[in-house]
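Quick one: structure for this chain?
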Amino acid sequence: MPSRSWRVLIVDDEPAARRGVRQLLRAFPEFVIAGECRNGRDALAALDALAPDVVFLDIQMPELGGFDVIRLRTPERMPAVVFVTAYDEFAIRAFDAEAVDYLVKPLNEERFGVTMRRVLKRLRAARGASPDPALVVSTPRGALVIELGEIDWIEAADYYARVWVGPRSYLIRESLDRLERRVGGHGFVRAHRKAIVRVAGVRALRTEDGDRLTAVLASGYKIPISRRRRAEVTAAVRARA
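Got it. Here's what it folds into:
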């Protein structure tokens, strides 16, 4: 038996959707289902009565949807939130609401497992600690949440930025300068005008072609470091050693 049980509230107007979450949760004995609701008004009452640690919250419901529930209760009084919806168009708004994750129906076991690991990480974090932000990118299969620790580096791509995770890359419609402000306090450093690297992913700093400094990433990529950024990058990497 787990030493701690986390309480779950499931809120969805579709019985089949509630059943799907319930069945997938069986693989995670750390969690117990405290209650289920089929609309937003019942959810507001249940949040007070049951004090769940996490809520699986449908976005589109009659009268009060998921965002309405958060607005009425206020984000500060919400437990960890996992949004569940039939559409991926609300992904950006969901993470603006500080959701742990965003699931698109029909749910599948593999994607649900990723979500539960993120939920556990959030719940086990020290109270008051701010979790690292995540990036939401669009793919042909829908919105994808990328945790910062999964990213190797980010490069400018015209009006977009390209986020590299190993050999894969994803476009995000956000400038590199804005992304630097978002991730700079979470272990990332500017390598040159068009690239940001995750410091923990740097395996070596090498001098090549005379005096050009290069960051060698765990993924194998080599990112040149501009003269202006050499001291900052070197200090950040040494601090991680």
